[in-house]
Amino acid sequence: MEPFDPNGFDDGFPPSDRGIINLAPPPDLEVEKGILGSLILYNADCLPDVLDVGLTPGDFFRESHAEIYSAIADLYNSNEPIDMNLVAERLRARKTLASVGGVAYLAELEANACARVMAKGYAKVIVDRSSLRRLMRISADATEKCRTVPNSVDELLDETEAAIFSLRDNRVSGNMLPMNDALSQVYDKIMRLQDLKGALSGLPTGFRYFDQMTGGFQRSDMIIIGGRPSMGKTALALNFALNVALPTMRQSFRDMPPYSVLIFSLEMSTDQIIQRLLCQVGQYDLLKMRTGRMLQSEYGRLTETLSIMKNVPIYIDDSSSQRLRPLDIRAKARRLKRKLAAQGQELGLIVVDYLQLIQPNERHNNREQDVAEVSSSLKSLAKELDVTVICCSQLKRADVANPDLADLRDSGAIEQDADMVAFVLRPEVLYPNKPELAGLGELIVKKHRNGPIGTVYMEFMKECSSFVPGQLEKYVPTEEPQEDGRKAKRKSKGTYETPEVVLANKDKP
C-alpha cells in the first residue's frame, strides 16, 4: 500500500475530467479537518446537526476524509462511544487506517477541531462546495456530449435537466417543527377549509357524489384507476381530465376555474386521444367518427365542438412509440409547470395511461422492483409539483367481478404509494348475456388515505366512450348462482333515464 501523503487529495474527477478542478471553487480542506476533529473530540454529539444539513461521505473533497467520516457514522449508528482510538480501530477493521494517514493524522484532526456549535455551519460549507463540483461535472459531461453531436438533442436536454434536478433533490430540505408551530399551521388550514363552506378543497372530479366523497382530487395525491381491458380505464381518466379542464362538463362546481391538465399516453396516439375527447364533449359516435360515417348534422355540430376544445388547457404527450421513463415525465411536467406559471396559469392534473408501460430509470432484477420504482417516482412527482397524478393500472386476474388491492398487477408497491385506489367495473362486460346490465358502471374506491371508501355509480355511454353521472343514487346488488354453482354479482338496473335525458339534465343543479 502506498504511503499516505497528507498534502495530497483525491479530487473525485475521472482522469479525463481532471482539468475541471482548475475551474471549480477551491475546496476548504481546513473546514473538512475541523468538522472531523469536532466529531472525534466531542464523541459525535454534534453529528445530528451535521446529518440535518445532509452531509454524506461523498461530499468530502479528500477521499481519506470521506473514509474517516464513514467510520464515525458507523460507530454512531452502532450506538458505540467515539474517540480517536475507537475511530482508528474501526478504520483498521475496514483495512483503511494506513491509507487515511494512521493514528497520527487522526490526532492532527482532533487538534484542529472546530467548536461544537460551529459544526453545522462547517457541514453546510462542505455540502455547498460538493454541489458546485457536481454541477460542474454535469456541465462538463453535457459539453462533451454536445461535441459529439448527439442523435437526439431533446434526449440530451432531458438527461441534463434530470441530472441537475436530481442534484437539487439530493440536497436535504425542510426542518422539524415543534408541536406549537405545527399546530398553528394545521389550525390555519382547518380554518381555510371551513371558510370554503361546502366548496371543494381539491380539483373538481365532475361527478357530484364523487366530489362529496373525496372533496375533489387533492393536491400531491397519486390516484390509481385499476381495471381489466375494456372496463373503461382510459375513458374515465379522460373524463376526469375534461372535467378538470372544462367547467361546463362538470355535474357540479362549474363556478370553479379550469385547471391545466397534462396527459401522457403510452397506448394511443395524440389523434386517437383527441378523437375520444371530441366524442365525450360533443357526444358523437366514436366508431362513426373513425370510419367517416358521421351524419351531416353532426358535422355541423363538430365545428362548434372544435371551437370549444381550442380553449381547453389540455396538453398531450404521445410517447407510445418511445421509452418513457419517470425522469422523462418529471422533466416534461416541470417544464410545463414553469411555462404555465409564467403565463399566470396553473397545472392541476397529470394523467398517465398506463403505469405498467412506463420504463424504470434503471433496470432491476425483477419486474416488481421496476414497477415499484415507477410508482414511487410518480408519487414523488405529485408531491414535488403539488399536483394530482392519476395513473391507470392493469389488474392480475382474467375475470375480476370484485377487484381488490391485491389484484393490482406486478407490484404491491402501487397500493402502498397510492393515496387512492379505485376500480372501474362494467357489469355488462362481465355478463354479456344480461342485457339489463347494459350501460351500468361502477367506480369502486377500495383505498382512500384521507377519506371514506365506497362505490360511485355511473352510466357508460358506449357509443362515445364516456362515463356520465348516474341518475340513481344507488342500485341494489343481487346475487344469482352461475351454472357452475358460484354466486355472481349482478346489479339491478332500476329506473334509469335514457342517455339523452342524462345529458339534458347535466346543466341542472
Short description:
With 509 residues, the chain is an alpha/beta fold.
* CATH architecture call of the largest domain: 3-Layer(aba) Sandwich
Major β-sheet profile: 9 strands, mixed
Number of helices: 18
The order of strands across the largest sheet is: 3-2-4-5-1-6-7-8-9
CATH class of the largest domain: Alpha Beta
Q: Can you say what the CATH homologous superfamily of the largest domain is? A: P-loop containing nucleotide triphosphate hydrolases
Percent helix range: 40-55%
- Rounded to an integer, what's the Rg over CA atoms? 29 Å
Could you say which structural class the secondary elements and strand pairing correspond to?
alpha/beta
Gross morphology is elongated
Q: Into which percentage range does the β-strand content fall?
A: 5-15%
Number of domain units: 2
SSE series: HHHHHHHHHEHEHHHEHEHEHEHEEEEEH
For the secondary structure, the number of strands is 11
Layout of strands and helices, then pairs:
Elements: H1 29-41, H2 47-53, H3 63-77, H4 84-93, H5 102-111, H6 119-147, H7 153-169, H8 179-195, H9 208-214, E1 222-226, H10 233-245, E2 260-265, H11 270-282, H12 286-291, H13 296-309, E3 314-318, H14 326-342, E4 347-353, H15 367-385, E5 388-393, H16 413-417, E6 420-425, H17 427-430, E7 440-448, E8 454-461, E9 466-469, E10 477-481, E11 487-491, H18 499-504
Parallel strand pairs: 1-5, 1-6, 2-3, 2-4, 4-5
Antiparallel strand pairs: 6-7, 7-8, 8-9, 10-11
Helix pairs in contact: 1-3, 1-5, 1-6, 2-6, 3-4, 4-5, 6-7, 7-14, 10-11, 14-15
